[in-house]
Structures are given as structure tokens and as C-alpha cells.
Specification:
Layout (H helix, E strand, L loop, with lengths): L8 E5 L3 H12 L3 E5 L3 H9 L1 E2 L3 E5 L5 E3 L2 H5 L4 E4 L6 H8 L9 E3 L12 H8 L5 E5 L4 H5 L4 E7 L2 H11 L4 E6 L2 H23 L4 H22 L3 H4 L2 H10 L6 H11 L11 H14 L5 H10 L5 H9 L10
Parallel strand pairs: 1-2, 1-6, 2-5, 6-7, 7-8, 9-10
Antiparallel strand pairs: 3-4, 8-9
The protein binds 1,4-dihydronicotinamide adenine dinucleotide and 1,3-dihydroxyacetonephosphate.
């Protein structure tokens, strides 16, 4: 593994929970950090060591420089972390483009698939910023845990292994351990699809279907992830790792997960408006279409999309899943 690179200037795009936590992690890894938030009040709060809207009750070290000016955020940066929601990536990058220093890596930290096009986020970066190498950071990591300095492990993937190792070394610190990978697509897919399965697992809990059903849902969801991964050319081992199995374990069982709690509300029949960001919602419908396009069987993903679209109830989805034709377990 590469040694720690010299001090760097990291730009973080996004003043939400994850942007704040990653900015703090970069600061603790010894780097100079400038965070861009579109909201001036949020930027000022983060500079003061708090983010009451997205990380309530957590106070953290000051030292993160903040700005509402993208040009200022990107000036002199030698690495950019992109941490706004997946569905806003294309518009954010459009604004970033004129100010983006060429050649420096852009690390995607959002988890999702573009709803309108089915594009993986890395391909949007390549399309809009062809002169910047893309990397993906993913894995089981609640922002609140990272912001509190609790031990966490993630994976950073880039096509260029040396870049992945360099970034992993750059962001690793006492309580954040970054593994490296050259499987960008596998790491992206694991992060994007686990959100859909977290909604499914939450719905099982909300509808009080039992712990056995929850375990079955997560396990069979993992099969769908492996099938889609194979169709997209992901390495199977990647999906067994932090950004696949690891993040499924975390978000399909914890009420700290917004996708899981969204599913719980769905299963209880509670109102869904005004809830915190749940990336699995837009990703479910497009992942259903991608699965169909690739001839991949994905009944749980399609069921989540159909429930979210109001086409079927949670009860009807369970009935449909339980009465599918029987098959050999290892059919991928
Ligand atoms: N919160 C967490 O524990 C983790 C989140 N992630 C991923 O990170 C991404 C961001 O999530 P969070 O920070 O948690 O969300 P959040 O809801 O806490 O914050 C989102 C931030 O993005 C900003 N934003 C939204 N649209 C924007 C736009 N068009 N232009 C500029 N800023 C915009 C919002 O103002 C807000 O500051 C998501 O894809 C999520 O899946 C990944 C790992 C952990
Ligand atoms: O991705 C996450 C943890 O790895 C955060 O999950 P939620 O977006 O469901 O809160």
C-alpha cells in the first residue's frame, strides 16, 4: 500500500450529513479541507463545528473551511469529494465544470443510479468531466458514526489501482480505514442497490412480518445484487465486500438508515412525504428497468418499485414473492 501522500487540499461538495462527516474525516487525516454548501447558514454552522439540520446533537472540531462559492471551493484543490444526492449529480457537475482543475480526481460519495437515464454515477462524471479521473467511495458508514469518530471501514475504487491506493491512503485515519479496489462498477452498484433492499427490509419490519422474513429478504436481495453485478461486469468478490454485503448488513437492519426507516414507514402504511433523503426510492424504479434491459431476474427490486409507485401493496408484494416458482437456491 502506498504511504500517506503529502498534505492535500480537498474540496468537498455538499453540506449534508455525509459531506460534513467526510470533510471532518479528511481534516483528521491531516488535510486542508474546503467544503462547499449552497446554503450560507449551513456553511457557517459547519465552520463553527456543528450541522444541526443533518447531524443534530453532534459537535465536532472546527477547521473545515466553508464557502458558498464553488469557484473558491475548487481553487487549488487537488482532490474533490462529490457528496450531493445522486439525482442532483448531473446538475452539480455542470456547475462545477468551469472551475474544475484538470487532472485531479473526483471521488463520488453518493449512492444511487440516475433515475432519468439509468446512468451509473461514474459514467456521468466521465461524460461531463472527461479530463478528471473518477473514483468511488462506498461501504457501511453512517455519517453520524464517522462524525463521532467511531471506527469505520470503507472502500475506494478507481480503474487505476495506483490512484485507488493513493486515495485510500489519503483518507485513512485512526478511525477511518479505507481499502482500495479497481472495481468501480462493483463498488458503485453495491452502494446504489443496497438502498433498495434496505427499503424492502424496512417494509418487512414495518409490516411486522418477522425476523425470519427480514433475513430472507436481505439474502435474496443479495442474490439480485450479484445477478445485476454479473450483468454489469462487476467482480463477484467486490459484492462480497464492504460496498455489497457490508452495506447490506448495516442498512438492512439499522434504524439509523434513512432507507430502512423509509421502508418501515411504508410497511406501517405511514405518510411518506417530507422524510429525509432515501436514495433507494429513485433508484428502485430505474434499477427495475435496468434489470429488465439486461434480462436479469430481480423480483425484490421490482416489488419495491411497484410498491413505491402505488401499483401494489406490501401485502401483495409479499404474496407474489412467496408464490414464485420454486427453484434451486444457487441459480444466479
Ligand atoms: N448520511 C450517510 O450516512 C451517508 C450518505 N451517503 C450518500 O451521500 C449522499 C448525500 O447524502 P447525505 O449527505 O447524507 O444527504 P443529506 O440529505 O444529509 O444532505 C444532502 C446535501 O446535499 C445538498 N444538495 C441537495 N441537492 C443539491 C444540489 N442540487 N446542489 C447542491 N447541493 C445540493 C443539500 O442541501 C444537503 O446539504 C447520498 O447519495 C447518500 O446515499 C453515503 C454514505 C453514508
Ligand atoms: O449509506 C449509508 C450507510 O452506509 C447511509 O444509509 P442511509 O442513506 O439509508 O441512511
Amino acid at each position: 500500500m502506498n504511504g500517506k501522500p503529502a498534505i492535500s487540499r480537498t474540496a468537498v461538495l455538499g453540506g449534508g450529513a455525509w459531506g460534513t462527516a467526510l470533510a471532518l474525516a479528511a481534516l483528521h487525516a491531516g488535510h486542508s479541507v474546503r467544503l462547499w454548501a449552497r446554503d450560507a447558514e449551513m456553511a457557517a454552522a459547519i465552520a463553527r463545528g456543528e450541522n444541526p439540520r443533518y447531524l443534530p446533537g453532534i459537535s465536532f472540531d472546527t477547521g473545515i473551511e466553508t464557502t458558498t462559492d464553488l469557484r473558491e471551493a475548487l481553487a487549488d484543490a487537488d482532490c474533490v469529494l462529490s457528496v450531493t444526492p445522486a439525482q442532483s449529480l448531473r446538475s452539480v457537475l455542470g456547475t462545477v465544470k468551469p472551475h474544475m482543475p484538470p487532472g485531479i480526481p473526483l471521488v463520488l460519495c453518493a449512492k444511487g443510479i440516475e433515475r432519468e437515464t439509468g446512468a451509473l454515477l461514474s459514467s456521468i462524471v466521465t461524460e461531463i468531466l472527461p479530463d478528471n479521473p473518477v473514483a468511488v467511495l462506498s461501504g457501511p458508514s453512517f455519517a453520524a458514526d464517522v462524525a463521532r469518530g467511531l471506527p469505520t471501514a470503507v472502500v475506494v475504487a478507481a480503474e487505476d489501482d495506483a490512484l485507488a491506493m493513493d486515495l485510500a491512503a489519503r483518507f485513512s485515519a485512526r478511525n477511518l480505514r479505507c481499502y482500495s479496489s479497481d472495481d468501480v462498477i462493483g463498488v458503485e452498484l453495491g452502494g446504489a442497490l443496497k438502498n433498495v433492499f434496505a427499503i424492502a427490509a424496512g417494509a418487512v419490519v414495518g409490516a411486522q412480518l418477522g425476523a425470519s422474513a427480514q433475513a430472507a429478504m436481505v439474502t435474496r436481495g443479495f442474490v439480485e445484487l450479484r445477478r445485476l453485478g454479473a450483468a454489469f461486469g462487476a467482480q463477484p468478490e467486490t459484492l462480497m465486500g464492504l460496498s455489497g454485503l457490508g452495506d447490506l448488513m448495516l442498512t438492512c437492519s439499522s434504524t439509523q438508515s434513512r432507507n430502512f426507516t423509509y421502508g418501515v414507514a411504508l410497511g406501517r402504511g405511514e405518510p411518506l412525504e417530507g422524510r429525509p433523503l432515501a436514495e433507494g426510492v429513485p433508484t428502485a424504479s430505474i434499477a427495475t428497468q435496468l434489470a429488465a434491459r439486461h434480462g436479469v431476474e430481480a423480483p425484490i427490486i421490482s416489488a419495491v418499485a411497484a410498491i413505491l409507485a402505488g401499483a401494489i401493496t406490501v401485502g401483495e408484494a409479499v404474496e407474489a414473492l412467496m408464490t414464485r416458482p420454486l427453484k434451486h437456491e444457487n441459480t444466479i
